[in-house]
Automatic annotation (TrEMBL):
The keyword Oxidoreductase does not apply. Residues 87-107 are annotated as: Disordered. This is Ferredoxin. It comes from Pseudomonas siliginis. Residues 1-30, 31-60 form the 4Fe-4S ferredoxin-type domain. Keywords: 3Fe-4S, 4Fe-4S, Electron transport, Iron, Iron-sulfur, Metal-binding, Repeat, Transport. Gene3D superfamilies: 3.30.70.20. Ferredoxins are iron-sulfur proteins that transfer electrons in a wide variety of metabolic reactions. Its cofactor is [4Fe-4S] cluster; [3Fe-4S] cluster. It comes from the Bacteria.
Amino acid sequence: MTFVVTDNCIKCKYTDCVEVCPVDCFYEGPNFLVIHPDECIDCALCEPECPAVAIFSEDEIPSGMENFIELNAELADIWPNITEKKESLPDAEEWDGQPNKIKHLER
Ligand code: SF4
Ligand code: F3S
């Protein structure tokens, strides 16, 4: 089991999640974060910390976002580790809640 970062993180990247993860299993791209499924210990600490409500347990992924399970696994192998909170993206509040941000994902 793992937790998964989903669509609403894209173009927001608040990074509050990073601060609470006891095993530092978040990985950072230009405008999205992912969780490494082999490193996540399923502690659930990050889920309530995300202001964008973008983090879900693998077995509670909202309908239509199942593709983010594979996407987290794929990108966590490529992107660098992030262990400290940083400024959110400049237009985070504007983008928070917009649907289908996957088309804006930068790799
Ligand atoms: Fe880290 Fe726990 Fe969130 Fe997994 S569930 S990403 S271990 S804080
Ligand atoms: Fe993204 Fe939420 Fe973390 S917006 S960076 S999953 S706090």
